[in-house]
Amino acid sequence: MLLIRAIVRPEKSPVVMKDLFNAGFPAVTKLSVFGRGKQRGLKVGNVTYDELPKDLLIIAINEKDKEFVVETIIASARSGEKGQAGDGKIFITPIEETYTISSRKKE
């Protein structure tokens, strides 16, 4: 199994979550976060906003679904045809073990 963490613009997260649900991936954890990427924040006039609001979406998937899920997230989260700075980032890491708390079942 894999853990996908996608950092996306807050206005894009409902679209990403809807598209994942429609694609058969309903289980998503969403957190509101603040941070900055390579663009180092946003400068408006003389004011620099160092920390920008983002949403962190966390999804556990089977390895065979990786490319499909990544493409779904990119298509849903990207701004316009070419995208732009601040659209987000996707991180993928392996999951060693999972347990269902209610049943104590190791999966």
TrEMBL record:
Keywords: Nitrogen fixation, Transcription, Transcription regulation. The keyword Membrane does not apply. GO terms for molecular function: ATP binding; enzyme regulator activity. One of its GO terms (cellular component) is cytosol. InterPro entries: N-reg_PII, N-reg_PII-like_a/b, N-reg_PII/ATP_PRibTrfase_C. Pfam families: P-II. The keyword Cytoplasm does not apply. SUPFAM superfamilies: GlnB-like. GO terms for biological process: regulation of nitrogen utilization. Gene3D superfamilies: 3.30.70.120. Could be involved in the regulation of nitrogen fixation. This is Nitrogen regulatory protein P-II.
